[in-house]
Each structure stands twice: as structure tokens, then as C-alpha cells.
Write a structure and sequence with these properties.
mainly beta, Neuraminidase, 4-stranded antiparallel beta sheet, 24 strands, 6-blade_b-propeller_TolB-like, SMP-30/Gluconolactonase/LRE-like region domain-containing protein, Hetero-Diels-Alderase-like, signal
Length: 348
């Protein structure tokens, strides 16, 4: 982690750094393909205020969505059909929510901590993993819809050694392990959601922030598929994976699948096809298991999804939900910002 003074100085370079990053608006340079699939994109729900920031999206067993917010310590519930949204839970004594992952049927682990959306500075030592249990409350009333049920919140574990926790994924429900990216530290923590024990599981140079960047943002989004941990490394502009053992420790070489774009949150289908949000590039891309990249929706000069931060694929692979920051880090064309929103992309 950069010292506070160094971080603030680096932030002054952010506009120049973002301007130097590649654009997907016109066409991809080789070996990228600008073959946009036949998709329908619509806004499912949008917050009212500029400055709102969706960090992560997860799908509940009933098909509704949970959104974590970076600008406030809140988790929101959104009906995937109507787009109606309600506040599900607000955490006290912190500023932000980050990764979220289902660890049991309708039970979710949530990363919380202190982070400034004005200076982009986290507070090391402020991060913890909490549990939101939706199934333990009002389960006897079958008439109540999921949005009307308040979850029960308990702490799983504080992580005082973490610098800035970010994306999270359940390793396996049977193992009771979640994996959490520590973006400036460049490691993946594993946390036992039953005991609260934690340790570094994965540590590689591909996870470290790139040198000379405005923000110390390395490993970001995570996904576990078929014995591999897939991850984005934002300032390195890489999408990677590593084979792991039953304890979530590395059991193979760290592999770079694709590079040359700015990956943020992601999801990976069972066949290894990845869908990745590109935040300041305002788009979602598809990456094949062989590293071929194509644009799904949006674009660096497009206002369709400013600051795409996260995405979540339905189990049938027909729908992709995308959360945004509204372009808070890098406004479209340098000026356009909007309230955060979640989009519904339907593949035909």
C-alpha cells in the first residue's frame, strides 16, 4: 500500500493514466475481435443520486439480485423482473461494502471496510467479513417475498492484516472457505466462514499492482470453476487463472489468459468463457478459454454502462447482470457521470 501522501500525489495523475489506457469503442486491435453478439441491453434499476457506486452483484436462489455499494455501507435487493429495489441491510461503523458471495442457501458473506470514493484511499486494518442470513428471518411466513425480509447479520472475521479487500468468491460450500482479493497487497486470502480463521492462499506477481500506476489496484475480481481460480488484475491489464488443490492453495502455474484491457469484476461459465466488466472502459467483454476477446456491450465513449464494475451470469447462461459506478473514476468523455445502475443483458 502506498503511504497516504504518496497515494494522494499519485491520484493527481489519474486522468492522464486513464487517458493512456486502451479504448474498445471503435474496434479491437489484433488479436481482439469486435464481434458484438446479438444481445438486448436494458437498465433494470438505477439509483437516484450521482456518486452512488455498485461494487458487486450476486444472484439469490429466487433469482433476485443483491448489490453491494461502495459509496455507502449498504446491500440492496433488486427484483430481477420488475426492477423494484429495496435496502436489504446497512452496516454500522464502516463506509463501504465490497465483495459478496453465497456461502449457504440464501446466506451470504460480505466484505466491508473503510474506503473513500473521493480520494480512493482505503483504511488498512478496517476490513472484515460479515454474514447476512436471509433464510433465518421470517421463514414461517411463506407469503412474504424475498425483498421484504430483513437478513440477520453476524461477523465472520475481522482481517486486520488486510490492506484493502475487494472481490470475493466461495471456494466450495463444503469447505466453508471464501477467497478474497487484497488489491494493493496482491494476494488472495482464504477465510473459514465457520471458524473465522484466515491465511494467504495465493500470492503471485500477476496479482500485484502494476508499477507506476495512479492507483495501487492489482487483483480484483475472482471466480472458481472446475478446480481453477480465475482472477482479474486491473492495472496489469491481465485476466488470469491458477489451478488449486482442495485447500485453495496453488497446484499449478499461474497463467495469463488474456491481456491488454482493464478487467474489474467478472463471471466465468462452466465452459471457461469469461464475462468481464472493464470499469473505465465502460464495457463488458467476453473472453474465450483461448484468450480471444470480443465486445458484449458498451464502449469507452458510450454512456450505456459508465464504469461497469461487476457482472453476474445466470445459471442457464442466458442473462448477464452488470453493475456500474456511473463513471465515478473516469467520466465518459471526461464529463459524463450518472447514478449507479444495474443492467440486464439478455443473450438471444
Amino acid at each position: 500500500m502506498l503511504p497516504q501522501t504518496a497515494l494522494f500525489g499519485a491520484l493527481a495523475l489519474l486522468p492522464q493514466a486513464l487517458a493512456a489506457w486502451p479504448s474498445f469503442y471503435s474496434e479491437f486491435s489484433s488479436p481482439y475481435r469486435n464481434e458484438e453478439p446479438d444481445v438486448e441491453v436494458k437498465t433494470l434499476f438505477q439509483f437516484q443520486n450521482n456518486g452512488s457506486w455498485i461494487d458487486n452483484v450476486v444472484i439469490r436462489p429466487d433469482g433476485s439480485l443483491l448489490l453491494t455499494r461502495l459509496d455507502v455501507p449498504e446491500v440492496w435487493s433488486v427484483d430481477a423482473d420488475s426492477g423494484n429495489a429495496t435496502l436489504a441491510y446497512s452496516f454500522p461503523n464502516v463506509t463501504s461494502c465490497f465483495g459478496i458471495s453465497e456461502i449457504d442457501d440464501d446466506v451470504f458473506a460480505v466484505v466491508i471496510g473503510n474506503f473513500s470514493t473521493k480520494t480512493y484511499a482505503p483504511t488498512p486494518g478496517s476490513f472484515s467479513v460479515q454474514k447476512l442470513n436471509f433464510k433465518s428471518h421470517n421463514t414461517s411466513d411463506k407469503r412474504r417475498d424475498s425483498q421484504s425480509q430483513s437478513p440477520v447479520a453476524t461477523q465472520i472475521a475481522p482481517l486486520p492484516d488486510a490492506q484493502a479487500l475487494n472481490g470475493m468468491v466461495t471456494f466450495t460450500k463444503e469447505s466453508h472457505l471464501v477467497l478474497i482479493a487484497d488489491s494493493p497487497k496482491g494476494v488472495v486470502w482464504k477465510v473459514n466462514t465457520k471458524t473465522g480463521d484466515y491465511a494467504v492462499a495465493l500470492n503471485d506477481t500477476t496479482m500485484l499492482p502494476a508499477k507506476g500506476q495512479a492507483l495501487p489496484l492489482g487483483i480484483n475480481g475472482l471466480k472458481v470453476v472446475d478446480g481453477y481460480v480465475y482472477y482479474s488484475s486491473t492495472t496489469r491489464m491481465e485476466f488470469c487463472r491458477v489451478k488449486v488443490d482442495e485447500e485453495a492453495n496453488a497446484a499449478g502455474e499461474y497463467q495469463v489468459i488474456a491481456s491488454g484491457f482493464l478487467p474489474d469484476g467478472l463471471d466465468v461459465a462452466l465452459d471457461g468463457t469469461a464475462y468481464i466488466a472493464t470499469d473505465p472502459q465502460n464495457s463488458v467483454v467476453r473472453v474465450t478459454p483461448y484468450g480471444q476477446i470480443s465486445l458484449v456491450a458498451g464502449g469507452q465513449l458510450s454512456t450505456q454502462m459508465p464504469g461497469a464494475t461487476s457482472c453476474r451470469l445466470t445459471a442457464d447462461g442466458k442473462t448477464l447482470y452488470v453493475g456500474t459506478s456511473g463513471g465515478q473514476v473516469a467520466p465518459v468523455l471526461g464529463t459524463f457521470k450518472e447514478p449507479a445502475k444495474v443492467l440486464k443483458i439478455t443473450f438471444s
